[in-house]
Amino acid sequence: MNKFFLLPCSLCVFSCCLLPGWADDAPLDIGSRRELFVDEYLAESLDNVRQVLNTPEHESAALLFDRPWEGRYCGYVTVLKDGDLYRMYYRGLPESGKDGSNNEVTCCAESKDGILWTRPELSLFTVRDQAVNNIVLADQAPYSHNFAPFLNSRPDASPDKRYLAMAGTSETGLSTFASPDGLHWRMLNPGVIRDGAFDSQNIAFWSEAEACYVCYFRTWSEGSFGGYRWISRSTSADFITWSVPEVMSAGTTPPEHMYTNQTIPYYRAPHIYISLAARFMPERRVVSEEDARRLGIEGDYFKDCSDNVLMTSRGGNSYDRTFMEGFIKPGIGLENWTSRTNYPAWGIVPIGETEMSFYIQHNYGQPTARVDRYSMRPDGFVSMRANYDGGTFATKPLLFSGTSLYLNFSTSAAGSIRVALLRADGTPFDGYGEDKCEEIIGNMLDRPVKWEAGSDISSLAGTPLRLRFHMKDADLYAIQFR
User: Fold this and answer.
1) What is the maximum span of the chain, computed from C-alpha positions, in angstroms?
2) Which stretches of 152-239 are DSSP H helices?
3) Cα–Cα distance, 444 to 409 (Å, whole number)
4) In this structure, what are the phi and psi dihedrals at residue 306, rounded to the nearest 5 degrees?
5) Cα-Cα-Cα-Cα dihedral of 159, 160, 162, 166, to 10°?
C-alpha cells in the first residue's frame, strides 16, 4: 500500500503540484463505475484540500435483546436487505459459557424500513419452553455461535440457495449452509475451510467484481491464538472448494486487534469493499470493578474497551488503512466502555434514496444489551474537503465511458465546486476549463457537471484525461461517469 502520509489525525492532507510527464503513467480505466475517495486510488495532487473521515449520525435503538432466549451476550449481528424486506440475524445467548454450546441460538428480526424492527413469530424450535419465537437455528452446536448469512447474488444461483451462510469454530472449520427463504436452513458441506481460528464472525459474499465467492475470517498473527487477532481470506468458484487462505495485508500500518472485519461490497460501488472492523483493545480499562457491578456486568466483561475503524479493499489480500482513527468512537457514559461493545453488524443498507444505515452493538454483557442504528448520506464515509479559502485537487490520469460526469457533493451557501478536464500537458481541453464550468452549489447526490457547451463529454470518452476540482467550503464524496 502506497501511503501519501501517515498522520496521527483524522485528516489526510496532501499538497503538491502537477508533475511533468504524468501522461507517461498508465491511466486508470474507471469506465462508468462510481468512485469514492475512501482510499488513495484516485486522487493524486491536493492543494488546501483534505481527505476527511466523516462521522455517522447516531439515530436510535433498533432492537433490544430482551427475550428469554436472547440476552446480554447476543452478538455477531448481520443486517441485509432482500427486496423491500430488511433482515437482521444475531446470536441469542442469555448467559456466558463455552463458545459453540447448545445454549446459543440464531435469531432473526425483520423490518419494512430498516428503522423499526419486529420479531417474526416462528415455531421452528422450542427454546426455554417457548414454542413461538424468532429462532431460525438451534440445537446445532457450534454453528449458532457465529452463524453469518448473506444473500446469494450470484447470477445463476438456484432458488434453494437464495440465502447462504458460513459458521463454525476451530474444531469444526467453517461449514456452509443454504436456505430458500432465510428462515429454513440446511447444512451444505461441513468444514470447507479449516486453516483458521474462526473465533469471530466469519463472513462471505458473492463478489461481482471478482466473479467468485469470497470469505474473510479470523486468524491470529502468530497462529494458534497468539499475537494479534487478524483476518485472512479465501475464495471459491462454487462455494465448495476454497483456495488456500491468504493473510490480509495492511501495508506499513501498526498491528491492532481486529475482532470482526465486516468486509462487504459497497452497494453503490460493489468493486469497493468497505470494512467496518471492530477494533479490540485488550486490558485497556476504563470501567472500575465497582462501576461494572453497578452496570450489572458479570465476570470480567469490563476490563477491555473497543471501537471500530474504516478499512477498505479493492479485492485481493490487501486492506487500505488510510484512516487509523476511530470511525465511531465510544459514546458518553461508562456503559459504552465495557468489553466487546461498539461492534458493527455486517451490513450497509440503503434507507430510502438519501440515507444509508449500519448498525452497532451497544452494552454487550449488560442487561441493556442492544443494537443501534447509525446513518450517513450515501457514499459519505470520506470526502475531499476545502475550507472557505478554497483549494484544488486533481486526479490521476484516467479513462472513462459515458456521456456525463456526476458528483455527490455538498457546499455551504457561500461555497462552490468547478471542474476542469485536463490534457496530458496539464492544460484544459477546449471548452472544459474551470472558467467554462457552471458553478456547482448545493447539496446533491447525483448532479451532472455542465460547461458552457453543456454536460455531454462523450467525445472525450476513452481519451486519457485528468479531473481538476476547484473547491470552496465544499465536500466531494463521489464521482461517476455515465
Assistant:
1) 76
2) none
3) 6
4) -150, 155
5) -160
For residue 39, CA distances in Å to 19, 381, 410 come to 21, 11, 20
- Distance, in Å, from the CA atom of 74 to the CA atom of 317, rounded to the nearest integer, reads 30
- Give the number of other CB atoms < 10 A from CB of residue 254: 9
Q: Which element (helix H / strand E) includes 294?
A: helix 289-294
Distance of CA 139 to CAs 135, 145, 154, Å? 11, 11, 30
Which amino acid makes up residue 239?
Answer: F
d(CA 363, CA 302): 10
Nearest to 218 by CA among 228, 234, 229: 229
Output the pLDDT for position 142.
97
pLDDT beyond 80 at 278: yes
| Amino acid present at 81 | K
Q: What is the pLDDT of residues 331-370, one digit of tens each?
A: 999 999 999 999 999 999 999 999 999 999 999 999 999 9
- Averaged pLDDT score across all residues of the chain: 94
N- to C-terminal Cα separation, the chain? 29
Give the pLDDT of residue 21. 43
Distance from C-alpha of 416 to C-alpha of 420, rounded to nearest angstrom: 14
**Is residue 5 very low, low, confident or very high in pLDDT (cuts 50, 70, 90)?**
very low
| The pTM of the whole model exceeds 0.90 | yes
Is pLDDT above 50 for 3? no
Q: How far apart are CA 267 and CA 149, in angstroms?
A: 17
Per-residue pLDDT at 12 exceeds 70: no
Give yes or no for a cis peptide into 142 (omega within 30° of 0): yes
User: What would the mean pLDDT of 427-451 be, rounded to a whole number?
Assistant: 97
Tally of CB atoms within 10 A around 174 = 28
Q: Which residues pair with 234 in a beta bridge?
A: 215
d(CA 327, CA 285): 20
User: 289-312 burial, b if ≥16 CB within 10 A, otherwise e?
Assistant: eeebeebebeeebbbbbbbbbbbb
- Lookup result for grid cell 452496570: 295
Handedness of CA 5, 9, 11, 17 (dihedral sign): negative
The residue-averaged pLDDT of 25-39 equals 95
Q: How far is 27 from 42, CA to CA, in rounded Å?
A: 10
Judged against a pLDDT cut of 60, whether residue 4 lies above it is answered with: no
Helix (H, G, I), strand (E, B) or coil at 345: coil
Q: Name which of 6-15, 102-111, 312-321 the model is least confident about.
A: 6-15
Phi, psi of 442 (to 5 degrees): 130, -155
How far is residue 167's CA from residue 258's CA, in Å, rounded to a whole number? 18
